[in-house]
Amino acid sequence: MNLLSVPGLPELVLAFSFLLVATVLAWRFDLPFVIPASDALEFTGMSYGVPLSLIAVLGLYLIVTKQVRRLIYYGLAAIAYGVILIAHFNVKLWMSLINPTLWDDFFWKTDQALRPLVDAAFAVHRGADMILPVGEHLYLFAFLAMFAGSIIVHSAQCFIVFRKVIFTAMLVHVLGALSYLVMPAVGPFLYEQGINALETARQVHMYGGYQALVAGGRPWIASEGSQYMFAAVAAMPSLHVASSAVFVYFAWKHVRWLGVAYLPLFTFIIFEAIATRWHYWIDVAAGLALTALAIAITTALFRSLEAEEAARLR
User: How many domains does the structure of the chain reveal?
Assistant: First the structure.
């Protein structure tokens, strides 16, 4: 029996394997493990109602259409994704205590070597701001639109492709969290203010938390970590770009019209990651490389299941 054919099993294995790795890190470096506070997302202007509403709508659709197998998978995948996100943000929060050596000075020099591209990102933001009244909110909303669109469209079409999208997105968060520890960086907003006032305000909040964490160490995480869990800073690699690239890749390959719709959003996200000064250009390149690795792993893992499905349909 192909274990991949069991809905949710690979996703749960990935999630709890990553949780085990995070637990080992917590034990090895004597770090507290925290769960998010009820208002931990408040600084983003969003509540848990946004992702929970999407889950509820899709769950209701599967119940009404009596897609029991997909409903079971969806529930298990939601649990797995939740476990991965909690482990991910804990590792991100621990970054400076596990590896306190920051690479921002070096990354800033690489950005200065690419200064025309940084200025181009500023120009893209100004252009978008003139065209769209919600320009400053678009960095977050474009990503959420791609996430929701991918979930809805792929879940209504090929089940295996839907699973591959979810698994790859999960894998990006697993690999991304571990990548934060390799060459830690806070972000170019340390040297230069971004052009997006909304994101700059968030940076002030998050950097304040980072400074308090560095000063307070483990006791601060134990007492305040739940509140600041989603406000941890880590620039390298850009997972905003990496996760968006996952959605573009699978949409372009399997639902071309959706991929075409995503291209302008994805292009904006890449340039806005720079214009907000959340990321250096090298973070974007690393994020895309991370996506390529995650897609390669997922493709290899699901190859046998796809072959079985193709044989069944002959």
Answer: 1
